Amino acid sequence: MKILLFGATGMVGQSVLRECLLDSEVEQVLAVGRSGTGKSHPKLAEIVHSNLLNLSSIEPQLTDYDACLFCLGVSSAGMSEEKYRAVTYDLTLSVAHTLVRLNPHMTFIYVTGSGTDSTEQGRSMWARVKGKTENDLLKLPFKGAYMFRPGAILPKYGVRSKTGWYQLFYTLLRPLYPLLERGFKNAVTTSDQLGRAMVKVAKHGYSKPHIESRDINHI
């Protein structure tokens, strides 16, 4: 299996990249992003591309892939709906439209979050925007499309948040990880569980398009 990975330097992307490289059935990973991963591995190739809204110059390098794992995302804190939509909806759908044209037999996996609003009508701005993003991705003619909705993610195996105060919070919380994993199985997952679940769904699909934390842990 050949996998495209967008957002490999974020916490979720780092988790997915690690599991892709460990999986014997994944033969190649192409990481596409605005910055490099800083990693070297025989399976890993990278494209550093500043304008992800326009992939025309790198389209020849994006063909013949079996799956795209799309892990790009930002926090909505302090952002207007217009700016959040530009990063969350416009960018994601632009990439997806390009990829479904180049790879019609591709599986597309998008990481959203617990509480995403599929009705697009709720009070929460981020949840509405994520909901519309999910809905419109599911309308595209991919072989399969799956929306991963993790709740709390506990980073493991050296995975780190790029946001300083997030990482401080995770560091302080680490002694409680075993308790959280046992006590909140429907709301908490670990970075390695999330990564493995995404790779497994990319390979084999799943019975439903929306995949919550309890599904991630089950997979």
Stretches where pLDDT falls below 50 for ≥5 residues? none
Count the E strands: 9
CATH C-level category:
Alpha Beta
Q: Going across the major beta sheet, what is the strand order? A: 3-2-1-4-5-6-9
CATH topology: Rossmann fold
Subcellular location: Membrane
Domain NAD-dependent epimerase/dehydratase: 3-111
Protein name: Epimerase
Description:
This protein has 219 residues and is of the alpha/beta class. The chain has a single domain, classed as NAD(P)-binding Rossmann-like Domain (Rossmann fold, 3-Layer(aba) Sandwich). It is 39% helix and 18% strand. The chain has 7 helices and 9 strands. The mean pLDDT is 89.
Question: Secondary-structure blueprint of this entry?
Answer:
Blueprint lengths: L1 E5 L4 H12 L5 E6 L10 E5 L18 E4 L10 H22 L4 E5 L13 H14 L5 E6 L2 E3 L9 H10 L3 H7 L4 E3 H14 L5 E3 H6 L1
Parallel strand pairs: 1-2, 1-4, 2-3, 4-5, 5-6, 6-9, 7-8
